[in-house]
Specification:
By secondary structure, the protein is mainly α. It has a domain at about 35-160. About 75% of the residues lie in helices and about 0% in strands. It is built from 8 helices and no strands. Helix 2 packs parallel to helix 6.
Length: about 180
């Protein structure tokens, strides 16, 4: 005798409960997989702290000033005076500060992160940036950079290649040669 298993037909209440369960599970998974734009913006906010934002602003200001100074000196057919340089620097600094508020800088950075990182990578970066180690790195970054720069400077000053580089500089720019003694 062959037995046939007849599947039980679930009650409407059970079906409803199953649908609610699936909605909760799938909804939770969807919520866990944030929109990559939101992740990129959060990452930008974490990474674009005040020192980082100031450093970017200073780079933008310096580049803008350099271009404006060159243009003005060419059109005036003379070098700018210190007073003019100060005035120009003030105008550019105010412009950059007004044109790039923190929220705008974060939006721009988020778009760049989205270009280079997928959703999973953004989540991994966020986990790291929220960690104690990332906060320590951020806190120590200026000191680490300063010590590294000093170490590089010491290394360059004692490099065996230094005498050759100095000779090349003196050959190309005779003004750098030591004065002749009578």
């Amino acid at each position: 005798m062959t037995r046939h298993i007849v599947p039980a037909i679930p009650s409407p209440a059970l079906v409803g409960a199953g649908v609610v369960f699936l909605a909760i599970v799938l909804g939770g998974a969807a919520a866990a997989q944030e929109d990559p734009r939101d992740s990129a913006l959060e990452l930008a906010r974490l990474m674009m702290d005040s020192p980082a934002r100031r450093a970017i602003d200073e780079q933008v200001i310096a580049a803008t000033l350099q271009n404006l100074i060159a243009t003005l000196q060419e059109r005036l057919n003379r070098r700018l005076m210190y007073r003019e340089l100060d005035q120009l620097a003030g105008i550019v600094r105010r412009f950059v500060t007004e044109a790039l508020p923190p929220s705008q800088t974060e939006e721009l950075a988020a778009r760049i992160y989205l270009h280079y990182f997928d959703a999973a990578e953004l989540q991994e970066l966020l986990r790291f940036q929220r960690s104690a180690v990332a906060r320590k790195v951020a806190r120590l970054a200026p000191e680490l950079a300063s010590q590294t720069a000093r170490a590089i400077d010491r290394e360059l000053r004692t490099s065996p290649a230094l005498p050759d580089a100095l000779a090349q500089l003196r050959s190309a720019f005779p003004i750098l040669a030591p004065p002749e003694t009578p």
